UniProtKB/TrEMBL annotation:
This is Transporter. Residues 393-486 form the Peptidase S33 tripeptidyl aminopeptidase-like C-terminal domain. It comes from Streptomyces agglomeratus. PANTHER family: 2-SUCCINYL-6-HYDROXY-2,4-CYCLOHEXADIENE-1-CARBOXYLATE SYNTHASE (PTHR43248), AB HYDROLASE-1 DOMAIN-CONTAINING PROTEIN-RELATED (PTHR43248:SF25). It holds the Pfam family Abhydrolase_1.
Length: 492
């Protein structure tokens, strides 16, 4: 999912000083104008940067350059305004989205009437990316400790990795939270000279949207959010609801395979085949197709399935599972592991996820007993997917971090924003549909929720219904009627 660093060499900088800002990040002072130049990857798009404070509580302190890209409205005579976009992650590049993906993603009507502006959130891509030692990352211990001793080893590793990433990344590491990104986004608005902006956020980009609406709701014309994040959840709620929706996607896959003759597992007990494959993987008996001398872990297999559910690519997953059933491990080469103390000044690689996630979520299991209890709850909720592999790994990566976070969970408090449009798949593998209903319930006066009754993580371009709901809202301010729903695509 992460598309980082692609424009680090080609994005020009404005070279201006940081914009003045009040300690809370709100300011009516215009930011420096962005100096736009043709993007190296596509001269039809414009790239630039904006120099901003690393710490909005100290706006006169150290700065960084926020990378920005823009596709101007193709029908400037009918231009509505600016549409800021964020594709999620945390860690996906908004610059890459605007330059390479926006033309295929948005309808022609949206492209005609909006300047589509993407940005790399601080710590991501070309915006002073968070980097960590490659060798140290390769030594990450299991996210499933089996004892207090292994839990302490995980915590020690995370603390060591955190210090390593801070050393490679500088002070931006301590300010990569979403609330800081929200203040950056309003600085973009000021630099563009816009009184109001429009915003489209997907997945983790919905958290940016929600918190922008909290802080700067009076500066919004429209906001469309797809695959919504619920930032009010505690650790158990977050992990269990993530596991529930991953398991639901597995059941959707099983149902599809049972009724679809082209499925590579059609006519077989798909659940039994799957459980048997994971059991073999637990015993080290499944060959890694990319490295035949190595065993493939059950966790690696569930990760492949989890990613396939995003599409969903059920056909590809069925073929993959069937192929693993035929491969047996002939010889296993033990992995070469380094001690943490052996890792020196080796090449660093972009790794922004935990710098963001662990500062947005106060989820810190204090010992093995607490962590094991959360893991058991995940497994009960998702016995076949064994929890949500990505979310579990995310939480495990915060073990040992300081308890204080920059942007802890809270119920959204949106008071000044216009109506916000939310869309969400009923069978989203990553973001539980209940997250959207809970956010909508907490913000009922300012949000409208349109369910997409199919599967997959993306929503906007899924059907004519989903696309038109967003387009009519962005272009004409048309709010869907209460109870409006979008039927699943035929492929689902």
């Amino acid at each position: 999912m992460l598309a980082v660093g692609a424009f680090a060499a080609g994005v020009p900088t404005s070279g201006g000083a940081a914009a003045d800002a009040a300690p809370a990040g709100r300011s009516s002072t215009p930011s420096n104008a962005i100096v736009w130049k043709p993007c190296p990857q596509d001269a039809a798009a414009e790239c630039g940067s904006l120099r901003l404070p690393i710490d909005w509580a100290h706006p006169s302190g150290a700065t960084f350059d926020l990378a920005v890209a823009r596709r101007k409205a193709t029908d400037p005579g009918r231009r509505v305004g600016v549409l800021l976009v964020n594709p999620g992650g945390p860690g996906d590049s908004g610059v890459d989205f605007a330059v390479r993906r926006a033309k295929a993603h948005f309808s022609a009507d949206v492209q005609k009437r909006f300047d589509i502006v993407g940005f790399d959130p601080r710590g991501v891509g070309a915006s002073q990316p968070v980097k960590c030692s490659q060798e140290l990352l390769a030594q990450r211990p299991s996210a499933y400790p089996r004892s207090q001793g292994e839990f302490e080893q995980l915590a020690t590793f995370n603390r060591t990795l955190r210090q390593d990433c801070r050393r490679h990344s500088g002070p931006i590491f301590d300010h990569a939270d979403t609330l800081s990104v929200v203040h950056d986004m309003d600085a973009i608005r000021r630099s563009l000279g816009e009184k109001e902006i429009n915003y489209f956020g997907h997945s983790y980009g919905t958290l940016i949207g929600q918190q922008y609406a909290e802080q700067y709701g009076d500066r919004l014309r429209t906001m469309a959010l797809t695959a919504n994040i619920d930032h009010s959840l505690n650790a158990r709620q977050f992990l269990v609801s993530s596991a529930v929706t991953a398991e639901d996607s597995f059941q959707q896959f099983v149902t599809w395979c049972d009724r679809t003759r082209s499925c590579a597992l059609h006519g077989r007990d798909v659940t039994a085949v799957w459980d048997g494959l994971l059991a073999r993987a637990d015993r080290g008996e499944v060959q890694d197709p990319g490295n035949p001398a190595q065993a493939l872990t059950a966790n690696a297999i569930t990760q492949v399935a989890f990613k396939a559910f995003y599409g969903p690519d059920w056909d590809g997953l069925a073929t993959y599972v069937a192929s693993l059933g035929a491969g047996e491990l002939k010889e296993r080469r033990p992995p070469q592991r380094l001690r943490i103390s052996e890792v020196g000044d080796k090449p660093a690689t972009a790794e922004p996820f935990h710098a963001v996630f662990c500062q947005d979520w106060r989820i810190r299991p204090k010992d093995y007993r607490e962590f094991a209890g959360l893991t058991r709850a995940e497994l009960r909720a998702a016995p076949h997917m064994r929890g949500s592999p990505r979310i579990h790994a995310g939480v495990a990566g915060c073990v040992g971090w300081p308890y204080k976070v920059n942007n802890p969970q809270h119920r959204p408090q949106i008071t000044e924003a216009p109506k916000i449009l939310m869309l969400h798949s009923l069978h989203d593998p990553a973001n539980n549909y209940a997250w959207a209903t809970n956010v909508h319930r907490q913000t009922r006066r300012t949000t409208v929720l349109v369910p997409y009754e199919g599967a997959g993580h993306s929503v906007y371009g899924r059907t004519n219904c989903t696309r038109e709901a967003v387009d009519d809202y962005l272009l004409e301010l048309k709010i869907p009627n209460a109870g409006h729903r979008c039927a699943p695509a035929a492929s689902s």
